[in-house]
Structures are given as C-alpha cells and as structure tokens.
Design goal:
This protein is α/β, with parallel strands linked by helices. The protein folds into 2 domains: 66 residues, no CATH class; 152 residues, 2-Layer Sandwich (Zincin-like), CATH 3.30.2010. The protein is built from 6 helices and 11 strands. The strands form 3 sheets. The chain has a 4-stranded mixed beta sheet, with helices on one face. Helix 4 crosses helix 5.
Length: 235
C-alpha cells in the first residue's frame, strides 16, 4: 500500500512507497515503470519520512522526465511481433509445447513458439528473453581480453541505467537490452567492461570503449538516448 503520492505536472498521481532499512547510509529512490508507475524509496533508520519526501521533490525534474518518456505497456499475444537481439520475431502460441523455442527463417526473422497456459504466457517469453540475452552477453565478453572479464554477470530490470560495474567486478545489465538493436546492446556491454579498467568517464575510459567496440560508438549512444524508453514497452 502506498504511503504518499507524487503528482506530476500532467496530473498523474504516482504512489510513493517508503521502506526503512537498517545499515543504509543514504536515501535512495527508484522510479518503477513496469506496468504500474510507482516510486520506491529506501531510507536509513534515523531518516524521517519528511526528509525522504523532500528528496523526491529535489529529484522532481528527473522523475517527471522518466515517467513522461515511459511508454504504455503493450501486452504481448499470439501473432504479435517484437525486436529481439537484432531481429524481428513473431510470437506463435502453441499450448501443448513444453519448451519455449526460437526458430530462425531464411530471411533472418524468427518465430518464437510459446507453450503453457495463458497465465504463464508472458512470463515464459520473459524467461526466454532473459536467458538468451545472458548467453549473448557472455559470448561478447569472451571475445574481449580476459582482463576485462567480470567476476559475475547479472540481469536486472532497472529504469535509470542500462548497466553498472561494481568495484568487486560484478557487472549488471538491464534485461530490456534484448529489445535493442544488437550493436546497441553490444555498446552497453563494452561500456561496462571498460569500467573494469576505468571506474569513471574520463577520456581514457571513452578511448577504451572505442577500442573494445570499434567504429560506431556515438551512433549507438545516440540511438539509446533517443529510443531507450521504448525498450520498456513489453513485459
């Protein structure tokens, strides 16, 4: 149940959910656009809810931008198509099928056969998409020198960033990169791998990104900036 509401300039009332966590040092907030808009706040034990709400207001412009750009969710159904790892894929519903599978046509497009009952239809697609993306990311990582390899790779459903690299060597990616053009997804992978050497965005860092990615870094960055929000319209 929402504790408070965040009202946008357009009049949308977005629930604010505040959680208190022991050991937390700072207030953090996460805007969620997965189906129902909401703002989740985590605050330290000693921080007041009033201070958390003031923090939300300080981030109003950023939050408004995220919610304004977030697309209306499109429910996937039999016969729908979507972009997946650089190719157009059509969904084919097969209730008796036990394993979701992708078949590639001669023209490069694909057919995703999805089984199971209706309640699990979109979840089966989501699981398949995540698993295949993780495989592709691992292939890309193995194509780079071993010094760039992360200690662990994880997938998340983030709204504010497409990837992150921790000081311990763990790299996380938004699983929604599966809906981006392949080279855009590859750019994010090379971006995060470059943080294994440079934990900043210095000229040396960008030189490393260009070395790993090759020609077209700026084009991939521009595509993601313009079209990134659209990757959240499914599932």
């Amino acid at each position: 149940m929402a504790d408070y509401k965040f009202t946008t300039s357009g009049g949308e009332e977005i629930p604010i959910i505040i959680n208190t966590r022991r050991g937390l040092r700072n207030i953090t907030l996460r805007p969620k656009i997965d189906g129902v808009h909401r703002i989740e706040i985590s605050k330290p034990w000693l921080a007041t809810e009033a201070s958390a709400l003031r923090f939300v207001e300080q981030k109003r412009r950023w939050l408004e931008g995220i919610f304004a750009r977030s697309p209306v969710k499109q429910k996937l159904k039999d016969g729908d198509s979507f972009d997946f790892l650089g190719r157009r894929v059509v969904i084919s519903r097969m209730p008796s099928l036990r394993i979701t599978r992708l078949e590639i046509r001669d023209d490069g497009t694909g057919v995703l056969f999805v089984g199971g009952d209706d309640k699990l239809f979109e979840n089966r697609i989501r699981v398949f998409v995540k698993n295949e993306l993780l495989k592709e990311i691992k292939k890309l990582v193995r194509q780079t020198p071993r010094e760039f390899w992360p200690s662990r790779i994880s997938l998340r459903d983030t709204t504010s960033r497409w990837g992150s690299c921790s000081s311990t060597g763990t790299i996380s990616f938004s699983w929604r990169l599966a809906f981006a053009p392949f080279d855009v997804m590859r750019y994010v992978v090379m971006h995060e791998l470059s943080h294994r050497k440079h934990m900043d965005h210095s000229p040396e860092f960008w030189a490393q990104v260009r070395e790993l990615y090759g020609f077209g870094v700026e084009r991939a960055k521009i595509w993601l900036a313009k079209n990134g929000a659209s990757l959240h319209r499914y599932l």
